[in-house]
Design a protein that fits this description.
- This protein is mostly beta strands.
- Helices cover 0% and strands 47% of the residues.
- The protein is built from no helices and four strands.
- A four-stranded antiparallel β-sheet has the order 1-2-3-4, with no helix packed on it.
- Strand 1 and strand 2 form a beta hairpin.
- It is globular and about 35 Å long.
Length: 57
């Protein structure tokens, strides 16, 4: 296998939990991940217009 598919773009501690932004290196799509806030989850990160944030590859 080659490089990692998902890479950590940013990480922030917030109210006893952690919020991370990870990027899918194959598609450029950014995902918001949460943990330790009572629930854990992962969802595409949206911009101010409701469009998925995509990094140029």
């Amino acid at each position: 296998m080659g490089d990692k598919r998902f890479v950590l773009k940013s990480k922030q501690h917030l109210s006893g939990g952690i919020i991370k932004i990870v990027v899918d290196t194959q598609t450029g799509v950014n995902y918001l991940m949460t943990s330790g806030l009572g629930v854990s989850g992962m969802t595409p990160l949206l911009d101010q217009d409701g469009k998925v944030v995509v990094d140029k590859r």
